[in-house]
Amino acid sequence: MKLDAAQGEAGGRPAGNNLPPLPADAIAIIPVREMTLFPGVVLPVTVGRQRSIAAAQSAVREQRQVGILMQRDGEQAEPQPIDLHRIGTVANVVRYVTAPDGTHHLVVQGDERFQAVEFLSGWPFFVARVQRVADTEDRTPEIEARFLNLQRQAVEALELLPQAPPEMIVAVQSVRSPGALADLAAAYLDLQPAEKQEILETIDVSARMDKVSKLLAHRIEVLRLSQEIGRQTKAALDERQREVLLREQMAAIQRQLGEGEQSKAQDIAELSEAIAKAGMPKEVEDQARKELRRLERMPEASPDYGMTRTYLDWLIELPWKLPEETPIDIKEARKILDEDHYGLDKIKRRIVEFLAVRKLAPGGKAPILCFVGPPGVGKTSLGQSIARAMNRKFVRVSLGGVHDEAEIRGHRRTYIGALPGNIIQGIRKAGARNCVMMLDEIDKLGSGIQGDPRAAMLEVLDPEQNATFRDNYLAVPFDLSRVVFITTANVLDSIPGPLRDRMEIIQLSGYSAEEKFNIAKRYLVARQLEANGVKAEQVALDDDALRDIIGLYTREAGVRNLEREIGKVLRHAAVRIAEGESGPIRITAADLPAILGGPVFESEVAMRTSVPGVATGLAWTPVGGDILFIEATRNAGNGKLILTGQLGEVMRESVQAALSLLKNRAGQLGIDAGVFEKSDIHVHVPAGAIPKDGPSAGVAMFIALSSLMTDRSVRSDTAMTGEISLRGLVLPVGGIKEKLAAAARAGITRVMLPARNKKDIEDLSEETRRQLELIWLEKVEDALAAALDVQPAAATA
Ligand SMILES: Nc1ncnc2c1ncn2[C@@H]1O[C@H](COP(=O)(O)OP(=O)(O)OP(=O)(O)O)[C@@H](O)[C@H]1O
């Protein structure tokens, strides 16, 4: 609905007629956001603020002009005079409309620039005394030249704009005044509000024309470029259309020659036969036949043809039929597990139990196994052995970094480049729907914004639902109930709760040096000999060399790097054999530095802990346990505690607790209590790039600080773990098995650990028990007695 000014006024009630009249040189001001009105230009303005509505209504009523001033900050809801630019445009209100939704619209026509001199009070809207600024009209030859140039530029820019109305060009061509031309061109250019305001504020006509001319030149450049890009895109499109056309013509020629039809008909017949043979369930076969009929009707040149064809290929190639299953032979399974893996007795026992349950109830709901452990401990190869023992196909599907539900469940076919998700892809790769499918890194399954992959995974693993698993691409159900799912993870706690509940967790904590030695001797060396084309009788790898590779060249929970280093050594031998060296090549420990370089992990512990203030702690990490050093130093100062080495909040608190405890025990330890106030203590945990957290280094922190303050170094054969309380009790911590394995790897022989962790060492390997002396801690005093050298460092030196 459009109303004229009088009606508009009736619509929005005026602010009152009994207002004092405005002084002659004053006008009502309407502040606007992010827009600039130029003289000579007509613009619509929507007004919402009460003050502005009152100003507009008063102007209409009194038949006076208004002043349009832009706010300095467009975001400001209730600007004050100080928040407005000083220079604006006096305008006539040519129309005032109140829309049915209650909004007020003005159409204003710019008349002349003005400068606000003073704001006045006494009206329910802004009123300012103003000074009008008219353009000077002298026309020097210079101004004339600029004028002509600007006119030419403005016309060129408008001609390049695809949607510019022709009246605009006429308007530009008919303007006679240089200042007005610059204003008009600036009004039509799509400039930032601040840029427009700057031009409005440029009173000098020559300078104004120069500014606008510069902006126009840039604009013309951009428009020309965009036109060029448009032309190129169109050419590319034409090319594609041409290709489609050619294809159609080719199909027509083939039809004429009776070729195309024949090959297409043959294709369709072959697909039809393949559908009949695929053993699809009825619903799937119906769908496949429907798609086949569609394909028959489609021209081969259409892009849909290729898509439908690919879809049919997927349906045909999926293993719908259940292969014949041989019953599991438990004795044989045991043999296979032993053949493929050294040690892991308890785990093999659980796998045999799992297979026995499968054997007794082949269609039953067997639990889903989840192998949790650091890399290279044999999770994948255990899965392969299970497949071998069950006489099934094996396939791995990686879930690490999957954030999108579609990666599991596929994209709908309408999506360009759609494919089935990785479960169905895995099934096709395995070629059997009763395969053993290993879902790797289930702990790294993300939850993203594109649907929840975890929910999709739950459905895949749920025996109640997975018989009718629906992949978005296939759009027909696929029976996953016969798939034997096995999952793997590095970190137990990162597996989403609901998924964890579905699975039976089997933890592999890593191997001791002796276990690694046996694995290498029996499996890895043989495998690497074969991989590098070397015969067993050509190389003799000494036991000592193997032990050195384990102890000095690798430090890992699993055996992956060990296998790699063995590979390097054997390749070295392979080169010598290839060069014609005769006789078996013997490799001893002494040869290793020449082949592998200097040892990577020397006895770091003894080196580091030789000075007071350093203690060896034990940490748990997702890739197994590791040792870490806590280093404390003291400088003259005033009692500050400095912590470095990327310590997490809990670990920082743990240092503070250790220090408080030490202050408390200062007397007992013979430390002068005053020394704390006179020194700054710096605690650093090296390997700064790795963030560290958790309370389990409490004992090590306390011992490091005690060692520092008593000047007694910590025994280099000892590592420790445990949380401490402020009262000096040692509290239990997690990851004991991994930590002990790490201690053994690092050559530690004594480990101090919380007495309340005794239950955690039940299934520690014989060998680790033999290597490590375990010292159980109830309170920190036990730790002090066991860890510190008896004599102060100075005295022993
Ligand atoms: N107990 C063992 N006996 C024999 N070989 C082993 C044993 N444990 C691991 N291996 C061998 O070590 C190599 C690495 O193991 P595998 O790839 O199964 O580790 P993984 O735990 O699956 O690691 P990731 O999590 O990185 O995939 C394999 O060649 C495997 O056969």
UniProtKB/TrEMBL annotation:
Residues 609-790 form the Lon proteolytic domain. It comes from Hyphomicrobium album. Its EC number is 3.4.21.53. Induction: By heat shock. It is an enzyme of class 3 (hydrolase). The active site is at S696, K739. Gene3D superfamilies: 1.10.8.60, 1.20.5.5270, 1.20.58.1480, 3.30.230.10, LON domain-like, P-loop containing nucleotide triphosphate hydrolases. ATP binds at G373, P374, P375, G376, V377, G378, K379, T380. It is found in: Cytoplasm. It catalyses: Hydrolysis of proteins in presence of ATP. PROSITE patterns: LON_N, LON_PROTEOLYTIC, LON_SER. One of its GO terms (cellular component) is cytoplasm. This is Lon protease. It comes from the Bacteria. InterPro entries: AAA+_ATPase, ATPase_AAA_core, Lon_bac, Lon_bac/euk-typ, Lon_lid, Lon_proteolytic, Lon_Prtase, Lon_prtase_N. ATP-dependent serine protease that mediates the selective degradation of mutant and abnormal proteins as well as certain short-lived regulatory proteins. Required for cellular homeostasis and for survival from DNA damage and developmental changes induced by stress. Degrades polypeptides processively to yield small peptide fragments that are 5 to 10 amino acids long. Binds to DNA in a double-stranded, site-specific manner. HAMAP family: lon_bact. Residues 27-220 form the Lon N-terminal domain. Homohexamer. Organized in a ring with a central cavity. Its main location: cytoplasm. One of its GO terms (biological process) is cellular response to heat. Pfam families: AAA, Lon_C, Lon_lid, LON_substr_bdg.
